[in-house]
Amino acid sequence: MKLLAIAVAGLLVPSAGLAHDFWVERAGEGFVVRYGHRGAELLAIDAGKVKAIRCANRSATPKDLLPAASFAPKEVRVAARCDSLSVFHSGGFYSLTPDGEVNLPRSKAENAVKAWESRQFAKWIDARSPAAATPFGDDLEIVPVTDLSTRREGDKVTLKVLSQGKPVAGALIAIDHKPLGETDSSGEVRIRLRAAGVESVSASVRRQLSTPEADALVLEASLTFEVGR
């Protein structure tokens, strides 16, 4: 029975990254980064795994805000004014073993059945800014194709998923862990906005690896923005 449970769990690994949200929102005169479930339980954020926090304003080169970030057990705060903000969280390696999931590469996990590397990117944009559609060049990110500043709850919008500036086909798109579709050959997908106030859309892709540490690389990205009421 245990082996059957492991086999089933192994099949879920490609989508397991969507089990926990990683997102950034505006908070007062700055931003707050959180991990867990939006609107519900928050999980601890390991400061050592947050590798970059970049702030962009119009045509200026993105500024690194990581040294000025304030870390608490379950959130990261940044005091800054940005048209867009990107945060990179390197989750490291995970392995599925007979005793469950461990945060270790296959080479260090006993009896590992599957192993993967996790990288998460959270982005917030000011939908009113011309810089909203300008990519950071992250390993995975979502950019708007539609002008979001004029959209409201229930409207349809087109988004594009990029990897280092190049379109990503087949990325799974979701809101609140509910899959909405996959990106086409141009990296684009059309979805309906579900929130009035703040919306957060996620994308995930799985890439095959063949290393002693992992079988796959799981990339996740979130895009958060304010929706007109």
Describe this structure in words.
It contains one helix and 17 strands. It is mostly beta strands and 229 residues long. It has a single domain (2-227), classed as Immunoglobulin-like (Sandwich), CATH 2.60.40.10. Strands 3, 4, 7, 8, 9, 13, 14, 16 and 17 form a nine-stranded mixed β-sheet that branches. Strands 1-2-6-5 form a four-stranded antiparallel β-sheet, with no helix packed on it. Residues 1-18 have low confidence and may be disordered.
What layout of secondary structure does this protein have?
Elements: H1 2-16, E1 21-27, E2 30-36, E3 50-56, E4 63-64, E5 70-72, E6 75-79, E7 84-97, E8 100-102, E9 114-125, E10 141-144, E11 156-163, E12 166-167, E13 172-175, E14 178-182, E15 188-192, E16 197-208, E17 216-227
Parallel strand pairs: 9-17
Antiparallel strand pairs: 1-2, 2-6, 3-4, 3-7, 5-6, 7-8, 7-9, 10-11, 11-12, 11-15, 13-14, 13-16, 16-17
Helix content: under 10%
The CATH class turns out to be Mainly Beta
* Average pLDDT level: 89
Principal-axis shape: globular
Number-wise, the strands total 17
Indicate the structural class: mainly beta
Please identify which CATH superfamily we are dealing with. Answer: Immunoglobulins
Number of domains: 1
Number of helices: 1
The biggest beta sheet is recorded as: 9 strands, mixed
Question: What is the C-alpha radius of gyration, as a whole number of Å?
Answer: 18 Å
Corresponding CATH architecture = Sandwich
Q: What is the CA-CA span between the terminal residues? A: 50 Å
Query: Percent of residues in beta strands?
Result: over 45%
SSE series = HEEEEEEEEEEEEEEEEE
